[in-house]
Specification:
Pathway (chains A, B): Amino-acid biosynthesis; L-histidine biosynthesis; L-histidine from 5-phospho-alpha-D-ribose 1-diphosphate: step 9/9
Distance between the termini of chain A: 84 Å
Family (chains A, B): Belongs to the histidinol dehydrogenase family.
Shape of chain A: globular
Number of domains of chain A: 3
Organism (chains A, B): Hydrocarboniphaga daqingensis
GO molecular function, one term (chains A, B): histidinol dehydrogenase activity
CATH superfamily of the largest domain in chain A: Nitrogenase molybdenum iron protein domain
CATH architecture of the largest domain in chain A: 3-Layer(aba) Sandwich
Oligomer: homodimer
Pfam families (chains A, B): Histidinol_dh
Chain lengths: 438, 438
């Protein structure tokens, strides 16, 4: 067995900035041929509805569905799938769901209002969306945890109708069989309707609606390049969550955590796929090498060792820094999806962190707790998007309306202000409409 | 003078639903040639930076700038522009800014944390973005109010650096002169740097950065089709606000508001441009005709009467309904940017409203108060996006990080739950990393 390859960098060496830029360089590129294919599918679904949806589903998922209604999985089948799961898995999913729900409750946006000194009332009113779509990838990456993380916040927000779609391509024997754990999780989380469709055609159907698929107001959930391109294409017609890139973790360690733990934390990111990124930053070169040693030893525990090797060799790094302050600075440049602060005083270090999707504080909070059951959402901004965007949450399924409520007396001074600025902007009807109230 | 044309609809008549769909049918279409042009500009700015930015700016804005540094307007010039404004306009802008700031303060997201029953701490931490870009249209639609509405929430959020861009094409005499009211508003609102660039090249420069233009984390502000396409293209690299469509108003009136007021409220939307949409809904056909009559009379007050005529003829409507409940239902289908509830009991009617960007309650709150000075933002979701998105606000310039802080004891039960679900998903490193902490 060859030794595990991983890049070593010294943050204080000349050329480090360029090395880091190169390591991070993976802005989501739009592939022109993917975009073209997806645009054609979206236009076709919009024009031909169910007929086009059936054609694409049969072609891409190698199925032979003749009626669009067959694409729906009845609710009773979701409940049956739940019952077929092993009891200990059901208990684990129930515990996770309860914790996800409890955290989500804290995220709910609330109405507020205040009065100005003129007696006018100003405020913000929060309402749930009417109907949202959750895209759940099928095939090899069929994850019940993703179902919980996407559906529960929507239900906590009060969305009356959550539509889940999950592609279920036929297997070698020609059977199209959805994953029991995924369907069971849909049952547990409270998805209202489930359709076995996927790809750009599913996104287009959710955005525009067909006779069978009801049109939604927002589409969330990860998918391949075609799904991502389709979400970008329908953005504006419906809301979308952020475009998910490969998953990432940065671990900042003071050199005092068991190197075997940190090795496995890095692996838990690397095992996702070859594009996943695992970076360890420590003010202690000897410690970095102890972690590298532990990685060598523990790789044998993993059936997915080949993916882990490729991910670490292609995108991983061990970065030696002067001190934890420099570690925080580098982490802010990376703006990682997941950040472990495996140090003695994580709260002090947190004060220096500006951008991260989720922060895991201390030696006893590995990223995988966040992936499954700590409570916060595991759908997090990737590819440096933590600079400007949020974890998926209840607030992504609510929206705000501004309220402006004026009295006859309170309106007069506003009429004068609005009238004067409208004059300056040359908008005469605005000025007149304001002054009508004075 | 020809009579003013506006569509009359009866919500209880057969075929109304189709008529309404047709009236609203203006989903933002992507024009392939615009997209292609914009993609080329974005790629060129990314590759050649300042050199490309200068070329496009000189070409599209008919300028002759030789050094990229000349594209920046020094802060002293912003202050000078402010001082050149008439005193009463300065007073009006100051009053508006104070009210916008006060409302914005209410929108700030806050940190929170709670403990679970195991002693683990879970929470959410809120931080401002590092640097944002505000696009301000130039030319005929140079609005100081837009500067206030875009810059103030970013500064209230705590964004250290707000970069404003405003195209300043040369006039017939070859002079490129920014609008004093726009620069003065930038001074008042606290924009940190201002550049006289626009179009897709400005959006690309903000997203990728050049030697002169610093890269930002998010770009907000309205623009033409090229600006909208550029924002869509850079989405993911940076955050963007929603893609702005034509402006809209729905007025629901019980027939008791002075028809002359409602006429001018509808005009104040219609005067924006020919694509703007003004719709009045009332349970009283005679009242609708009185408003139509008032529109005929008051049109003479307006220098922009031609635009108003075109907008009302092309996209306006007077809709007769059975009662206010039916009016609310139709309004929910429209999900308007602006909604006036010009009725005796607007609070009761508000309970039936699900989707609207801003709601103006009562007869004394015309939309133009919201456009300038009531306090809430005038950047609102258009083209039915109020179904899923928010007014621009402080929260658009802040982002959340999830916090997961476990104790050694508190970690054990989580390790068991995470381990079990990870087993089911076939993610062995996730399971092992979790179980290391048990």
């Amino acid at each position: 067995m060859s030794r595990l390859e991983i890049l070593r960098l010294d943050a204080s060496a000349a050329g480090f900035d360029a090395q880091l830029d190169q390591l991070l360089d993976r802005a989501p590129e739009q592939n022109a041929s993917v975009t073209q294919t997806v645009d054609a599918i979206v236009a076709d679904i919009r024009r031909r509805g169910d007929a086009a949806l059936l054609e694409y589903t049969n072609r891409f998922d190698r199925r032979s569905v003749s009626q669009a209604a067959e694409l729906e999985i009845p609710k009773a089948e979701l409940a049956a799938a739940w019952q077929r799961l092993p009891a200990d898995l059901r208990a684990a999913l129930e515990a996770a769901a309860a914790r996800i729900r409890r955290y989500a409750e804290h995220q709910k946006l609330a109405d507020w209002e205040f009065s100005d000194e003129l007696g006018n009332r100003l405020g913000q009113r929060v309402t749930p969306m009417d109907r949202v779509g959750v895209y759940v990838p099928g095939g090899k990456a069929a994850y019940p945890s993703s179902v919980l993380m996407n559906v529960i916040p929507a239900k906590v927000a009060g969305v009356p109708e959550v539509i889940m779609v999950v592609p279920t391509p036929s297997d070698a024997e020609g059977h199209s069989k959805p994953n029991d754990a995924v369907l069971g999780a849909a049952h547990l989380a409270g998805a209202d309707r489930v359709f076995t469709i996927g790809g750009a055609q599913a996104v287009a159907a959710l955005a525009w609606g067909t006779a069978t698929i009801p049109p939604v107001d927002k589409i969330v959930g990860p998918g391949n390049a075609y799904v991502a391109a389709a979400k970008r294409a329908v953005f504006g017609r419906v809301g979308i969550d952020s475009i998910a890139g490969p998953s990432e973790i940065v671990v900042i360690c003071d050199g005092q955590t068991d190197p075997r733990w940190i090795a496995m934390d890095l692996f838990s990111q690397a095992e996702h796929d070859e594009d996943a990124q695992s970076i360890l930053i420590a003010p202690d070169i000897a410690y970095l090498e102890r972690v590298a040693e532990a990685m060598e030893q523990r790789l044998a525990e993993l059936p997915r060792a080949a993916i882990v090797r490729a991910s670490l060799a292609g995108r991983g790094a061990l970065i030696a820094v002067r001190d934890l302050a420099q570690a925080a600075e580098i982490s802010n440049r990376i703006a990682p999806e997941h950040l472990e602060l495996s140090v003695a005083d994580p709260r002090a270090l947190l004060q220096q962190i500006r951008h991260a999707g989720a922060v895991f504080l201390g030696r006893h909070a590995p990223e995988s707790f966040g992936d499954y059951c700590a409570g916060p959402n595991h759908v997090l901004p990737t590819s440096r998007a933590a600079r400007f965007s949020n974890p998926l949450g209840v607030y992504e399924f609510q929206k705000r309306s501004s309220l402006i409520d004026c009295t006859a007396d309170g309106a007069c001074p506003l009429a004068a202000i609005a009238g004067r600025i409208a004059d300056a902007e040359g908008l005469h009807a605005h000025a007149a409409s304001a002054r009508d109230r004075s």
